[in-house]
Each structure stands twice: as C-alpha cells, then as structure tokens.
C-alpha cells in the first residue's frame, strides 16, 4: 500500500538567517538528506510560519527538505512587519535562498497561501522548478477574500459571529479595514486582541470536524500576530493585476509535473478555486478528498500529500 502517514520527527541538519533587505531577515532550515532531491516547503497564511511537523511530509532519506518562514512570519524578523512585504518580495526571497544554498532546481510544496506563492514563484522562475504539490488552492482574488471575511458565516455562523463581534456594529460594513485599524494600532494590547480573534476565526473554520488543538494553536500569541497582520495586509494591498494572473500564467508551467489536493468541504479555500486551476492546467493530477476540509493535517489530505511526495521521487 502507498505510504499515507507522516514520517518520524526529524531535526534540521542546518539552520540559518538570511538578511534579504534592510528590514527583513528570514529564518530557514534544511532537514533530511543533504545530497537528496531539494524540496521547498511554503507555509500558509500569509504569515502563519512553519512548524516541525511540516518536515514530516517528506522521506528524509530521499529529500533535502528546505523550510523558510516568510517575511514577518514565524521565526523571521521583525514579526508581523508589513513594510516591503509583497508577493514579489517573497518570490525574490525564495530565489535568494535557492542561490544561497546552491540549489539548481527544486520541487515546491505549498498549501493555502503556500499554493498561491508556489504558483507565483514557479510562473516567475519555471526553469528552477522540478514540480509542484499544491493543497487548498487560494488565488488571492476579491471573491475569495470576501468569502473569508463575510460568507464563511454560511457554514460557521458561530465562528463568524465572534469574528465580526470584535468590531463595533457601525464598522462592520468593512471588516477588513476595521480589523486593519486595530492590527496596526500603536497599542500592543489592541493589536494582540484583534490578531487573536482573527486567527482563531480562521482556525475554527479550517477542519471538517472540530479540532480543539488547531483552535488552541491559532490563538497562540506569535502565530496569531504574524498571521493576522500579514494576512490582513496582503488582503488589502497585495492582490494580483490582473486579478486572474495566476490562472492566465499557468501556461508558463503546464510542462511541469503537478498534484493538486483539495478538500471537498474546504470552507477557508473553497473547491471552486482548485477546480478553476485544474481547468486551466488539465495535465495536473487533481485529487478531491471527499471527507476533508482545509487543514493539511486531516487524514485524507495528509495521505494524499504524502503519496504525492512519494510519487515525485521519480522527478529529479
């Protein structure tokens, strides 16, 4: 039977920090086989940061596993910093890290916002890519952002009531700007309170079945602050022009092997975006998981992602 569960926990064999400009320093690590096939893990959010569990999607005897916390996220500094933080600068950071580590070509593995960033990087640098494994597709379009801010209440009314309830009724006509005013406040207590509510809202809607552990992790201070500030910043200021750019530019990467894994009941990133991506990229292996939501940790999604990394061993 194909492998369907995590590899055992591993520690990095190397960690480092790369100063990418006068403001940002990004954290990176390598694990697995130093002479293995390189794979770049791209975390979600934007702003969520990576965790040790993310190394476990890959066979450490085969893959050279590279993980980077993106600008403003996780162990990168400054945490939650939005200056000089755009999709383009993140793509530049990925390319700078590739050069720094002396990697010629690598696989990209990204879920949610990580799928967005993987597509943006691959379409900019197709010659540097071996293949893409994508999960929970997000294309950074206004319809997807509006769904997150308002329409998820159709399926998660309690979570949305808590999210909207943090904002005075008079400001709820524009939840994004109302949240940003608080997330960018000079008062740390105001920033943290808004960040925690935003992050817990997302965590509460991310699994098919209730996950107390996921919700608890979403409320952790560093995670919440990075996620909420960077996510709100990107929703406000970093959409693509034209809006369907990632779909239009798929033709630049259609020659690359790809797997798209999507939970049927993904509420955070609904299946319609994955469907549109696959229609633009019919060569990609498209797998809808019938009993899953958004989280990569759900059994069906986890199994499909690990099976994809096993299959990609043939691409070097």
From TrEMBL:
The lineage of its organism: Bacteria, Pseudomonadati, Pseudomonadota, Alphaproteobacteria, Rhodospirillales. This is Proline iminopeptidase. It is an enzyme of class 3 (hydrolase). One of its GO terms (molecular function) is aminopeptidase activity. Pfam families: Abhydrolase_1. Gene3D superfamilies: alpha/beta hydrolase. The active site is at 112 (nucleophile), 266, 294 (proton donor). InterPro entries: AB_hydrolase_1, AB_hydrolase_fold, Peptidase_S33, Pro_iminopeptidase.
């Amino acid at each position: 039977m194909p492998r369907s569960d995590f590899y055992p926990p591993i520690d990095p064999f190397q960690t480092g920090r790369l100063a990418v400009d006068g403001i940002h320093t990004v954290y990176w690590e390598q694990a697995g086989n130093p002479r293995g096939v390189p794979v770049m893990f791209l975390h979600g959010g934007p702003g969520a940061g990576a965790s040790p569990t993310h190394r476990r999607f890959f066979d450490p005897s085969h893959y050279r596993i590279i993980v980077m916390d993106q600008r403003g996220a996780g162990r990168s500094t400054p945490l939650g910093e939005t200056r000089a933080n755009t999709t383009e600068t993140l793509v530049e950071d990925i390319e700078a890290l590739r050069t720094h580590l002396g990697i010629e070509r690598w696989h990209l593995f990204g879920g949610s916002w990580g799928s967005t960033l993987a597509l943006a990087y691959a379409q900019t640098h197709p010659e540097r890519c071996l293949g893409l494994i994508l999960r929970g597709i997000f294309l950074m379009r206004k319809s997807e952002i509006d769904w997150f801010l308002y329409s998820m209440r159709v399926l998660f009314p309690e979570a949305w009531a808590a999210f909207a309830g943090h904002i005075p009724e008079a400001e709820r006509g524009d939840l994004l700007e109302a949240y940003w005013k608080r997330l960018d406040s000079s008062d740390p207590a105001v920033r943290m309170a808004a960040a925690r509510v935003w992050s817990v809202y997302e965590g509460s809607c991310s699994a098919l079945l209730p996950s107390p552990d996921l919700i608890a992790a979403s409320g952790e201070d560093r995670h919440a602050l990075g996620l909420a500030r960077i996510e709100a910043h990107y929703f406000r200021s970093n959409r693509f022009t034209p809006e369907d750019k990632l779909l239009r530019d798929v033709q630049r990467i259609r020659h690359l092997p790809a797997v798209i894994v999507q939970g049927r009941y993904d509420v955070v990133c609904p299946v319609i975006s994955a469907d549109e991506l696959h229609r633009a990229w019919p060569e990609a292996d498209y797998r809808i998981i019938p009993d899953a939501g958004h989280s990569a940790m759900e059994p069906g999604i986890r199994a499909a992602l690990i099976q994809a990394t096993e299959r990609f061993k043939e691409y070097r």
